[in-house]
Amino acid sequence: MVRVITIDGPSGSGKGTITQQVAEATGWRILDSGAIYRVLGLMADRAGISVDHVGKLSKMAEMMPLSFDGERVLLDGEDVTDAIRTETAGYAASKVAAVPQVRTALLQWQRNYAQAPGLVADGRDMGTVVFPAAEVKIFLTASAEERARRRYKQLKDKGLSVNLARLTTEIQERDERDRNRSVAPLAASETALELDSTEMTIDEVVEKVMEKVRFTFSDLNV
Ligand code: DC
Predict the structure, then answer these.
(1) CB neighbours of 46 closer than 8 A, spacing ≥ 6?
(2) I need a labelling partner for 90 at 20 to 30 A (CA). Which of 57, 61, 138, 160 fits?
C-alpha cells in the first residue's frame, strides 16, 4: 500500500515549503495539486474558454497533457512553471477549481500519482476527498494578513511589483471562494492535525509534522 501524507490549507499557509521539506525527509514524491488547477486555468485562458463551458473544461481536464519534472511543471512538454505562478493564473485556477465536473475529471489523475513508497500531497481537499484514507493528514492555516505578507515577500524577491493591500484582499476573496464552493471546499478533515503557522517558523511546523509522521509510520527512520 502506498503511504500518503496530506497537507491541506489556504494559499500562503506555507503548504508548499512544508510539503517539500517533508518530502525531502521521507524521500517520497510530491503531488502539488494546486499546480494542476493552475495549468488547467492557464489552458482555459489561452483557449478563451470560460468557466461556463463546463463540457469543454472537463474534456480538457480529462486529457490534460501534464507532467512534473522535479520542480518543473510541463504542459505538453512546455515548461509552464513560472507562467502558472502569477496572480492571474492563481485566479484562473480558483475559478476552474470551483467546477464540480472538473474536480471529478482530475480525481483519478491525482490518485494514480500515488506510487510506492509514499506520497506527500499538497492542496485543499487532499485529506477530505482525494486521499480520504491517508494515514497522516495536516491542515495548515495562518492569518490572512500573515499569508499576504509572505506572498508579498515571495513576489518582491522575484522582482515583481506588488501591492500588499490588494494582495490581502485577493487572498481573502480566494479563501472565500475555496471555502464556499459546493464541491470539495477547503476544510480540515476530521482526522487532520490542525496547525496555525502564523507565529511559527518553518522549522517548527516541519518538526510538528515530522513528529506525527514518525509516530504513525514507526518503521520509518526519519
Ligand atoms: O495551492 P495553489 O495556490 O497553487 O492553488 C491554486 C488554486 O487551485 C486555489 O485557488 C485553489 C485551487 N485548488 C483546489 O481547489 N484544490 C486543490 N487540491 C488545490 C488547489
Answers:
(1) none
(2) 138
State if residue 14 touches ligand 1 by the CB under 6 angstroms criterion: no
Ligand 1 centroid to residue 184 C-alpha, Å:
11
- Mind listing the domains of the chain with CATH numbers? 3-214 (3.40.50.300)
41 dihedral zone (left: phi>0; alpha: psi -120 to 50; beta): alpha
Could you tell me if the CB of 174 is within 6 A of ligand 1? yes
Q: Output the pTM of the full model.
A: 0.92
Atom of ligand 1 nearest to the CA of 181: 15
Q: 4: closest CA among 129, 117, 124?
A: 117
Q: What is the mean pLDDT of residues 3-21?
A: 94
- Pairing label, strands 72-75, 3-8: unpaired
